[in-house]
Amino acid sequence: MSVLIAIGCIIIFGAGIWCYGLAFQVDGDTLRLLVFLAGILLNSLALFIPWQLVGQSRK
Prior knowledge:
- It is a single chain.
- The chain is mainly α.
- It is 85% helix and 0% strand.
- It has one domain (3-53).
- The chain is built from 2 helices and no strands.
- The mean pLDDT is 91.
- Keywords: Membrane, Transmembrane, Transmembrane helix.
- The chain crosses the membrane at residues 33-54.
């Protein structure tokens, strides 16, 4: 189960990194900001998931 969580989080983290690069290519300041913030949220989610799911099994 931990391997599936890790693979999913790596994919989410990669999507967040991709959003950072995409933010410099889209037109419009508001859309640029939203895409960049989506990247931040995706990377935060990729770090949050293992700490919550895998961390609970150690208790």
